[in-house]
Amino acid sequence: MQRGLLEAWIEVFSQAGVALDGMEPLPICLWRAAEPQLGEGVQVLLQLEEEQSWLLALEEGEPLGEWSLPAASNAEQLKQQLALWAKHYNPALTVVLGDEDPNKPLLPHLGQWLGCDQVAVASQEAPAALWGLVRGDQR
Predict the structure, then answer these.
(1) At residue 46, does pLDDT exceed 70?
(2) How far apart, in whole angstroms, are the C-alpha atoms of residue 96 and residue 57?
(3) Separation of alpha carbons 116 and 112, rounded Å
(4) Which residue has the higher pLDDT, 21 or 36?
């Protein structure tokens, strides 16, 4: 992150009367949000978006990697990429972020494409999860 941008964020938080201790990349925030709900094996956080989808994989609760995927609107390419990914990593559970109307037709198929159970997170819950606000960080 550029120093000037960080200093600007520190100033914004300072004006709000809050101290900014640090900033983390989005995948780490996703991991922190999902960590209490994760089990054993490879767990997947799948975020379906109009322009591009994202897959964050965790193994035994630790980040395994993040992959960009085709947009939710391109179901055939998304299906192919998810099936290929699942063949290599064999996930145990998928948490789907983004249950908006355009994505609803995909939801019944995602578990089959990935070969595992899935849980959908309602769109109003997703922003909190995306920014790691589900639970506070304890250091």
Answers:
(1) yes
(2) 12
(3) 7
(4) 21
